Amino acid sequence: MSCPRISTGSPGLDDLIGGGLEKKLITELVGGPGTGKSTLATLAAVSCLKCGNGVVFIDTEGFSIERFRQIAGEESYDLAGRLFLFEPADFISQGVMIGSAEKVLKENDVGLIILDSATGLYRAELERGREAIQQLTRQMVHLLGLARRYDLACLITNQVYHDPAHNRLVGLGGTALAHIAKVILQIDRVGDCRRATVIKHLCLPEGGFYDFRIVREGIASCEGENEPARSEDS
Ligand SMILES: Nc1ncnc2c1ncn2[C@@H]1O[C@H](COP(=O)(O)OP(=O)(O)O)[C@@H](O)[C@H]1O
Ligand SMILES: [Mg+2]
Fold first, then answer.
1. 148 C-alpha to center of ligand 1: Å?
2. Tell me: the pLDDT tens digits for 168-223?
3. DSSP 8-state code for residue 23
4. What domains can be seen in the chain, in order of their start residue?
5. Which DSSP symbol is given to 3?
6. Using an 8 Å Cβ cutoff, are 150 and 158 in contact?
7. If you take atom 15 of ligand 1, which residue's CA is the nearest one?
């Protein structure tokens, strides 16, 4: 039986986005370096692998086998057998590998396709302006097509840049990426924790958040840790 959603591997995060990663659409994690995007991507991959499905993982940053082992635990060796890893070295190869992934999808029962990160290699192409953004848009449309045709969840991560006009961090890829992704979570550092905030969702209000800490096994809830301290006698 096909399940409409794939668990992120975190019950708190699943609740935040309405029960997990929805199939046939793109979910995007956007955040600065070290906020936990790759951890969340690996956690979702492991969760899907543990359910018995395959995972296509397109990694542009250098896949950490050690981090996969930490999150997958004792089963890591067996689970890795259903992990189809692609490691493009440049933006053109990223597009080619999204295309090549289709062969894996045809021959295996894959539940999730991950692109971590969608914009790391694109960043090096920014001087090509319009042409580069069109190429990125085509890659995302291709991914979305795969998610729809093969009934998959699709998780992408997106890096941020500083927008001096508004003095804030903004996801790369402009509105093209923001339109194509139907669920967007922004990840920020909040004290010792990280906060995932819903900034776009098809059927849930924006602004909901979940606080977590990055741990060896993936993430753990930070519930209550960021609330203002109450004085002893109040
Ligand atoms: N085993 C671990 N235990 C606790 N924290 C870890 C562990 N491995 C990595 N981290 C932390 O995870 C963070 C990096 O997360 P990552 O998911 O790679 O971020 P991003 O992909 O957003 O750059 C760093 O702060 C690092 O210290
Ligand atoms: Mg990363």
1. 31
2. 889 999 888 999 999 999 999 999 999 999 999 999 999 999 999 999 999 999 98
3. B
4. 5-221 (3.40.50.300)
5. -
6. no
7. 36
Give the Cα separation of 53 and 150 in Å (integer).
Answer: 13
pTM for this entry: 0.95
* Nearest CA owner, ligand 1 atom 14: 34
pLDDT digits (tens, 9 = 90+) for 15-36: 999 999 999 999 999 999 999 9
- Residue 188: what are its φ and ψ, rounded to 5°? -130, 155
Amino acid identity of 5?
R
* 192: Cα within 13 Å, side-chain hemisphere: 9
Q: Which amino acid is at 76?
A: S
CA 103 to chain centroid, in Å, comes to 22
Phi–psi pair at 199, nearest 5 degrees: -110, -10
**38 class by beta-carbon count within 10 Å (0-12 exposed, 13-18 middle, 19+ buried):** buried
Residue 219 dihedral angles phi and psi, to the nearest 5°:
-135, 160
